[in-house]
TrEMBL record, chains A, B:
Cellular compartments per GO CC: cytosol
Cofactor, free-text remark: Binds 1 zinc ion per subunit.
Pathway recorded for this protein: Amino-acid biosynthesis; L-histidine biosynthesis; L-histidine from 5-phospho-alpha-D-ribose 1-diphosphate: step 9/9
Gene: hisD
Native source species: Fuscovulum blasticum DSM 2131
Cross-referenced InterPro entries: Ald_DH/histidinol_DH, Histidinol_DH_CS, Histidinol_DH_monofunct, Hstdl_DH
Protein name (database record): Histidinol dehydrogenase
Alphabetical list of PANTHER family matching this protein: HISTIDINE BIOSYNTHESIS TRIFUNCTIONAL PROTEIN (PTHR21256:SF2), HISTIDINOL DEHYDROGENASE HDH (PTHR21256)
Residues the record lists as binding substrate: S237, Q259, H262, H328, D361, E415, H420
Enzyme type, top EC level: oxidoreductase
Keyword terms: Amino-acid biosynthesis, Histidine biosynthesis, Metal-binding, NAD, Oxidoreductase, Zinc
CDD domains, per the entry: Histidinol_dh
Family: Belongs to the histidinol dehydrogenase family.
Enzyme Commission number: 1.1.1.23
One MF annotation (Gene Ontology) recorded for this entry: zinc ion binding
Amino acid sequence: MPMLLSTTDAGFEAAFAAMLGQKREEAEDVDAAVAAIIADVRARGDAALIELTGRFDRLALTPETLAFSKAEIAAEIARVSPEDRAALELAAERIRAYHERQKPEDAGWTDAAGAWLGWRWTAVSAAGLYVPGGLASYPSSVLMNAIPAKVAGVERLVVACPTPGGVVNPLVLLAAQIAGVDTVYRVGGAQAVAALAYGTATIAAVDKITGPGNAYVAAAKRRVFGRVGIDMIAGPSEILVIAEGAANPDWIALDMLSQAEHDASAQAILITPDAGLARRVQAALEARLPGLERAAIAGASWRDNGAVIVTRDLDEAAALSNRIAPEHLELCVDDPEALAAKCRHAGAIFLGAWTPEAIGDYVGGPNHVLPTARSARFSSGLNVLDFMKKTTLARMTPEALRAIGPAAERLAISESLQAHGLSVRARLDRLNG
Amino acid sequence: MPMLLSTTDAGFEAAFAAMLGQKREEAEDVDAAVAAIIADVRARGDAALIELTGRFDRLALTPETLAFSKAEIAAEIARVSPEDRAALELAAERIRAYHERQKPEDAGWTDAAGAWLGWRWTAVSAAGLYVPGGLASYPSSVLMNAIPAKVAGVERLVVACPTPGGVVNPLVLLAAQIAGVDTVYRVGGAQAVAALAYGTATIAAVDKITGPGNAYVAAAKRRVFGRVGIDMIAGPSEILVIAEGAANPDWIALDMLSQAEHDASAQAILITPDAGLARRVQAALEARLPGLERAAIAGASWRDNGAVIVTRDLDEAAALSNRIAPEHLELCVDDPEALAAKCRHAGAIFLGAWTPEAIGDYVGGPNHVLPTARSARFSSGLNVLDFMKKTTLARMTPEALRAIGPAAERLAISESLQAHGLSVRARLDRLNG
């Protein structure tokens, strides 16, 4: 049974706080195994990578076959239907157009002291995208990771994707091609992350690693953080729908199920001031559930992690939403813009009844790699800036140094950093002498 | 002896690669101790925090004295000289002015399909700044961490600073006051990071933790990453100076020593096409060293980690700089802007002979919290965006959904995510039926 709460219940605050604190996914303790795998790849490079791929993916590789050849990619892609290709291309075009607008601007100005100040954005030189194999091998995620990197100006963009038993999803290869990926390596797990971070004879090291993965991949990313940049450590998916009484209960039920079907750890929550709608959505959801191909997964998610909360009004709904900081927030209300203005913490907001969250997963344009597990309080979905970095710039004139140098010298002395002070003083003495 | 290399040496590439791979600081393995401390603070809150502060800082606190009172702060600040206060205020004003320009803009537009798309930036609600105690307790770092947070719009900003034996640096408290910090807690170490991340009865949890610290603090930040946001894990400081023959060798020597005096693990490198200048800088540096208060530290840094590299020309210097990706890059050349354009990876660039790096540490305006250990390849110095996050926004119209919905449905089916497809299909059926 999903959790059914009303903010007027005596026990509401305790129950809501418990839900917020609930850990939906037990992190497997794989850190020791991952540390050993990373050390092995660092020490033995390709040999370790090939041996581990043989063990975990039942696949015999050589340095020459670590990457898909052009002929192999062409042969796989030829199996994709024209309709699937057209859909992927439409998605890529829309994702590219949205992310093009995220490109940041450089700046430079002269201030009152005569100092010239500014900053400059540059792209990361090389990035590696992790793409899971098997069931969670989503071509849409390839687009969502690779396109921001290309828009940022990343020069070398590679994919690591395990192919257990040699099986690959042709749509993943097509998505990589459409997005402009240079090379696809058929390796996965912690060993792939280690190869991308440290490099091997065949796989050149990258500067940034992004993309979802299992517990081994997540632990490996956490371990190589600092050596390379990483994106967030993604947790199970979540949706929060805030709806008013007039909303269509079947549409909301399907939107909630489209998160629940991802994973038994996924979470779908409805918050509404209308108790009648709450009942109608529950009924619609129970009616849709048995017919789903993934009924078992979606049912477990709904039973174990689902929640329906009835509030006094929409303001109270927004306040609860801010405490949840949902990955996906859908506003099925008359004035979604007004409500969105009150929702400060969310990865992505879907405004109005005609914007199902699934549009955002594929073709809306915004990224579908979003902060989970309440991390929208402090982080953003994947974007172009994740593949760029800012260099600050400063140029003093003699006059500027004369104006602000003495304060720098004073602070250096107060911090007992004498050489800092002397480096300023030597120049001031030249100006004064 | 610092490393002396010339790019025309036969062994140059191997020696340079070895220098790049060199680990200047052995990370103490404190992870198990830190895990236990965090678990203790999570389980016992204030009681654990107070007990650990008693043990590590020899300071007996109660929940009531965890934070400095207004009277205590006023009494400490009264000890600061007017000159030091004026210097701090000038620094704060310049840092604030620079960071105000970093505030990002929201966006929104209607695209060809009729979809309304956009994004919105919002501030993190609460941030905690870690400030080391003792020798490395720098008021300038308080400004550099706190001001971007305030400019971003962070509502609750707290500082955690250990006060071993009860001793605090009054300039740290003044810097916190000038920057607008709400509360200063006299706790430190992994226990302070745990309290900020998880909260105790007295210290409310924050959403983001920034600031430098020792191995315990760094390990604790790495462990709470995900529960809260963190900034980078900072390593020892570095400077790279690229200079031409006409440059002043004494100024360059002092700039290099102002990094070397931080820490024996710090690194100062000179790259120049002029072998004569290389010798003059070395001589100037050796001449300045013995007179420094921190001669032992700076000398160890220079001996163990210093380097002088003679190149064929400035282009080769820029190429080496890009492989180093220095935290601080100083360009003492005739046309620093032209050379800066070729230096893609650096935390901060200081242009021309009148811009000693120490200006950037205090009063330049740009942030002095910068990526170390080659991480400027993929990350930026601390900035306003570190205290903000982006929410993507999308609103479909019926027409937009009709245009792009079928592609979303098709991709959902190709990924075996049936409910995703149905959530779009149910709306399309309404439009068509």
